[in-house]
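PT: before anyone asks, these are the final sequences, not the draft ones from last week. 321 residues across everything. Please model them as a single complex and drop the result in this thread when it's through.
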Amino acid sequence: MSVDHRGHDHEHHRDQAQGHAHDPHPTREDDDVALSEGEAKFLALKSLLIEKGVLTADEIRRRQETNDRGTPHQGARMVAKAWVDPAFKARMLADGKAAAIELGIEVTEAELAVIENTPERHNLIVCTLCSCYPRSLLGEPPAWYVSKAYRSRAVREPRQVLREFGLSFPESVEVRVHDSNADLRYIVLPMRPVGTEELGEAELAALVSRDCLVGTALPGLLG
Amino acid sequence: MSGNAALRFAPGDRVRIIDLGKPGHVRTPTYAREKVGIIDRYCGEFENPEERAYGRVGRERIPLYRVRLMQCDLWPDYQGGSADTLVLEIYHHWLRPA
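LR: through. Structure below.
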């Protein structure tokens, strides 16, 4: 039996029994055999931390689980709540972290700043020095957010970057870039789209994509 | 902490972001050094990442500000509105009155 037959012997036996024998199709080798340098460092550090009693495997696992609970939906429902509840919006602009906790979101960031878009000002978030991102509210950042191209160009030529995302503003609208370079993490509070007066909170949240919360998109009616 | 309060900058103060030329884990981007802006707001006090990054945790907390700069002051050939701005976070010891 050649290596290519691993895993589906019985299917071929069944085929042959039914008179449909055919050439075995090739399978691809798994490509996760060798560790990358980063993975090897991570595993070495992890086993040292556990061995020395600094952390337990369960604590590391639980933190990973907490991290994975962050999704753009968390940020979207904060925005939708702010759109329908002016008092919540005021609290959210004053203290984004407290407002997120109020909605039951587990916040791992030291401080969350909420930056409001207005007819006069559009806001764009970047981290020029690394990949700081409000993970509790948006999950892991997309590849473009951590790319050197976005990180350098968002501060240098934000309007060109926004045009590449499909957003164009007249010069009368101020474009304000927020560099997330130290201790704060940021989300944008977009403006509520016109024509959504009849929508409830859940329907409004569905209009708010991840990119709206970074400032590279505007919420719109779906479909 | 309270000792720094008297020295703190206030929103609207004009400040220069200086270049300390310090190696290591510094959070002041090169593009903003030697530029003049306005204190947008005071963010509170945080442990200095220049210390924390090397395992020196639990030390003195230092004031952090958001500093607002005009894009046309940052980039002489900036393509965009003359009112466009950039705001970034700068620790107290990287700032001087301007």
